[in-house]
Structures are given as structure tokens and as C-alpha cells.
Design a protein that fits this description.
This protein is mainly α. It is built from seven helices and no strands. Helix 1 crosses helix 2 and helix 1 crosses helix 3. The longest helix has 30 residues. It starts with a helix and ends with a helix.
Length: 115
């Protein structure tokens, strides 16, 4: 029962993100709208962090389980993917390097700004 209210808040932001995706004519995924909405609510203290923190940590802890269906989908589509395996791996490697580099640079800027 302790997870019901925080989970409702998180799901409400997710649902609002879905609604925003259909009403705002920008090519932004609904989950990004939901995350930005929850971020706005937390920054403005409309929703206190303590009210969603434990549920958010729980959801992060079980996140690896959410990747199981995607892995099963890749395995079941192996025949279709085998013909494009090399470009697929190249895209994965390049995008991972770019994401790590950008994240490291942003973290570096934030750490230097705090000093």
C-alpha cells in the first residue's frame, strides 16, 4: 500500500506525457514528456522528492527485468537481423561511445561548475 500513491503520481505523469505527445506537434516521445513533467513537479516542489523517491528507487532496481522482453524479441527475430548484423553492431557501438562521451563531458562540466 505504501507504493500506491507514489506509483500513481509516476503513472499520472506518464499518462500526461502520452496526452502531451498527441496534443503537442513535436517529434518527442511520450516518455520524455512524462519525465520532464515529473522533473518540473519535483523542481517546483509541487511533488516532494520524498513522496516518490522510494518507489523510483524500486523501479530502478527492477529495471533490468524490463529488458528481458526486448532480448527475447531480438532472439526470436534473429533470422531477420542476421543479414544486417554488422551495421546493427556498428550503430550500437558508435551510439554507445557517443552517449558515454556526452554524459562524461556533461558530468565534467557540472563537477567543475560546483567547484
Amino acid at each position: 500500500m505504501t507504493f500506491l500513491k507514489p506509483l500513481s503520481i509516476i503513472f499520472a505523469c506518464t499518462f500526461a506525457g502520452e496526452l502531451m505527445r498527441y496534443t503537442i506537434p513535436l517529434p518527442i516521445p511520450a516518455n520524455i514528456y512524462g519525465l520532464l513533467l515529473l522533473f518540473f513537479l519535483l523542481v517546483t516542489k509541487i511533488v516532494p522528492l520524498s513522496s516518490v523517491e522510494s518507489t523510483g528507487n524500486f523501479l530502478i532496481d527492477i529495471m533490468p527485468v524490463m529488458f528481458v522482453p526486448a532480448g527475447v524479441g531480438i532472439i526470436s527475430s534473429w533470422k531477420s537481423l542476421s543479414s544486417i548484423l554488422l551495421p546493427y553492431i556498428a550503430i550500437l557501438v558508435i551510439s554507445t561511445i557517443v552517449v558515454h562521451s556526452v554524459t562524461a563531458k556533461i558530468a565534467d562540466v557540472i563537477i567543475n561548475k560546483k567547484r
